[in-house]
Amino acid sequence: MKRLAQILTLLVAAVALQTTIASAQHTLAVTTGCGMATSRLYPAQEMRPIWGTWQSGVSWRYYSLPRFVGCIGLDLNWMQRGFSYAPYASIYEDKKQYKYYRRNYNTLMIPVVWQPHFYLIKNHLRVYLEAAVTFSYNFAATFENSEPYTFGSASGQGTVIKGKYDMRPERDNRFCYGLAGGAGFDLLFGQLEVGVRARYDFGFSDIMRNRNKYYDNGLDQQNKPGENPFWYTPLRSPLDNLIISLKVGWRFNKTGFDSWFYKPPKRDKQVIKFAL
């Protein structure tokens, strides 16, 4: 029993030591920002970006020792996505006359991030690039429709219909995935980090079912006019986002990251002598 207690004590001490060492390499931050949302509908439509979409979340990073590897991390973002397009652009002579349909999604997104970086100003400035694989869940949506022809006649000129968009499994995808890329910098004040980041989320999956799964939206117009203006669902409908965000983070130790103090071992010079 005494030997077992000693072994357990040594294991606990080893785990605690490893945790203490590893904690030096972790940061936790909160982020918030705004930007632009759109979609790459196919067949192509007359689109316009939605500016002012927001994003908030938390960010965890683990900084490995080799500098060229960078760091890895996870984000949890609560964000707004969507698109805006003109359903009947061909009936207007001037682009300024277009009437638009707009849809906004509330989304939870988890990016898995790789972030190569380097330090400047005696480790007080971190400059980085980042690449990520993203997974998201769209849990709610709203719509706004200012195109009267979508409602079945032109008699509704000037009418705007808006409200909650009902996401149904036969016509809408709640789960999406994609890639993201960005860049930014962090200012380091002791254990506190303050930074700015720009990231573009490039969707690969479709937010709406294609024609093979949901080929006719005619009943949508009868049941809830103006909610879904697509007479036929598009073949492709991935979502894109551009977000510029502010970050406030905290490093879990006082001494700094191991990469600050790492010096690669010197290699002995090899002299090759050629003799005739």
How large is the share of residues in beta strands?
over 45%
Q: Order of strands across the biggest sheet?
A: 1-3-4-5-7-9-10-11
**What value does the Rg take, in angstroms?**
26 Å
Helix fraction, binned, reads: 10-25%
The quaternary organization reads as single chain
Description of the structure:
The protein has 276 residues and is mainly β. It has a single domain, classed as Porin (Beta Barrel). It has three helices and eleven strands; from the N terminus they run H-E-E-E-E-E-E-E-E-E-E-H-E-H. It has helices spanning 2-23, 218-223, 258-261, and strands at 26-39, 46-47, 50-63, 71-86, 101-115, 117-120, 125-145, 161-164, 175-189, 192-203, 239-251. The chain has an eight-stranded antiparallel barrel. A hairpin with a 4-residue loop joins strand 6 and strand 7. The protein starts with a helix and ends in a 15-residue tail after the last helix. 29% of the residues are buried.
In a few lines, what is going on in this structure?
This protein has 276 residues and is mainly beta.
Key words describing this protein structure:
mainly beta; 3 helices; disordered N terminus; 276 residues
Write the layout of secondary structure elements.
Elements: H1 2-23, E1 26-39, E2 46-47, E3 50-63, E4 71-86, E5 101-115, E6 117-120, E7 125-145, E8 161-164, E9 175-189, E10 192-203, H2 218-223, E11 239-251, H3 258-261
